[in-house]
Structures are given as C-alpha cells and as structure tokens.
Write a structure and sequence with these properties.
single chain, 229 residues
Amino acid sequence: MNRATPVRRAPPPLPILALLLAAALSGCGSTVETPLATIGPAASSSAPGDGSASPDATATQAPLPVVTPAPSGEPGTPSPSDGPTAATVCTGSESNLAFFTQAAAGMAWSVYCAVLPDGWYLETGSYRLANEGHLEVTYRGPGDAHVSIAEGNICLDVGGDVEQCAPRDTVIADAAMGDMVGELGRLSNGLVLDVDRGANPSWRVTGLGIAEDEFTALCAAMIKVPAAP
C-alpha cells in the first residue's frame, strides 16, 4: 500500500518572522518612565563667564522646567517693581533661579538652595512632583569640590530604607541648614548633613572635597526659596 509522503513546509522568510514576533510582543505590558526635568551640562569652571551650555535632556511632563546652568556671579535681576526675594540670591543664573522658584511652587514642603562664594556654580539639577516631590541639585566649586542637595521624598526609591538613602559612618554634632537644624555626619569620602533623616520630607546635603568648617558654613548659609505668587 502506498503511503503519502509528508509535505515539508519551508519556514517563513525572516521579515515575516520579525512581524510575527513584533505582534506577539505588542500584547505584553511595558513600563515607560518619564524622565525628570534636567539641567544640562554646566559651563566649564575654567570659563566662569560662559553660561551658554545647552540642556542635554528635554522634559516630557509639564510643568517640569529644563534650564541651562551658569556659573555663580550671574544672579537673576528682578525688575524695579519686584521686591527682593530669596531666590534672587541663590547661586546660579536667572534660569537657575526660575528652576528653584518653580520647584518651590509645586512642592508641599520647603525648597532650599545654596548661596555660595565665588568659584562655585550649579552643575546639575532635577525635580519631580510625583510621590510628594523630590529635588536634587549639585554644585561644583574650586579644586573639584562638590556639594549636593537632596530634598523631599528622597527615600522613595529604596523603599524607605534610611541606611541606603541617607548613609553615614559617624555623627559629629548638630549643625544648621539654613533656618533648620540637622545632624552633621561623616562619610568615608566626605561630609553629610541630614535634616529629619529618613522622614518624608527630609533634606540632605553632601560635601566632597571640602573641609568641615567650610561645609558647615555653606550649609548654614542655605536659604528657603519662596514659591512664585
């Protein structure tokens, strides 16, 4: 008795396989993270008068701003009809000051900025309004010293684990952060000042490549930024 010979079907061409794979993956869920508004690359410290650096990222979630950093010495100048505000003496350019003012307007807690001597400038910064808000900025100073500030819900990304979000090796003493008082501590490679450590909100200032007396003076000089009217 004759047996039917099985028919071998050739595999579909590669373009068809690619389409089938894409169709299968389209049914899978995916998570898209909205980037934070980010301050672009800072002008070089060797050219303190140049504030022309352009942002390296664009915010996709209004109203988070994208601003361009500039060295200190270029404070925003209010019009004569404007009264002096705390934000006009924050270190940075006029657009940097707008960044802080807009952040302060969106947060339920107080936003603080640094008032630094010559030679320091705002290097990076970002904030988000989600999950009760989170702001981070970094300043760079002489000798490649850095001061970083984290404010708001800073422990969210580690599930509230204070030893991860606010580590320190030893506690030195109480110290001022503007009009607030926190705990000055030591890290293996620098210094840190925590206000309401582990709470939401909390404030944390970290200093690298900076002496203790200079660091505490910079923390004490920080100011509260008023929200825009």
